[in-house]
Design goal:
It is a single chain. The chain is α/β, with parallel strands linked by helices. The protein is about 50% helix and about 15% strand. It is built from six helices and five strands. Strands 2-1-3-5-4 form a five-stranded parallel sheet, sandwiched between helices.
Length: about 150
């Protein structure tokens, strides 16, 4: 799977841990920046990750900003991007399984590298259950979310 990874300066200290975690699972990383601790605006990097997911170039995305909140808000403004902050493994997996989450957001000033090493695999190893037998309720709910997205 191709995974787009982006961050602002607040998430930059965790970016290499995220990239290493993605690669350790055998996935390909599309690194959209930032590439230093220089102050930048998180929406710019959120947009880059979201566009990779929207185009299909990446199947999933991971965003890291200071708290994870700004990245999640910005990402969810993009059609077809289902993003959430996850600072635990249950939410990272369940968000994919039940809610078709395709972008994981984390706070670089909230969690540390050891937690990243378990959250990223939980997110990337999870599969959306709405396409599987017995997953009709998940598909119905995600369908309602998509209708909300269409109506603005």
């Amino acid at each position: 799977m191709k995974v787009a990874v982006g961050c602002d300066h607040g998430g930059f200290p965790l970016k290499e841990v995220v990239i290493a975690s993605v690669r350790s699972l055998g996935h390909e990383v599309i690194d959209v920046g930032t590439y230093s601790l220089e102050a930048v605006d998180f929406p710019d990097f959120t947009k880059k990750v979201g566009e990779k997911v929207q185009s299909g170039e990446a199947e999933r995305g991971i965003l890291i900003c200071g708290s994870g909140i700004g990245a999640a808000i910005a990402a969810n403004k993009m059609k077809g991007v289902f993003a959430s902050i996850c600072h635990d493994t249950y939410s990272a997996a369940q968000g994919v399984e039940h809610d078709a989450m395709n972008v994981l957001c984390m706070g670089g000033r909230v969690i540390g590298p050891e937690l990243v090493k378990v959250i990223v695999p939980a997110f990337l190893n999870a599969e959306y259950l709405g396409d599987k037998a017995g997953g009709e309720r998940f598909a119905r709910r995600v369908g309602k979310i998509k209708k909300m997205e269409e109506s603005g």
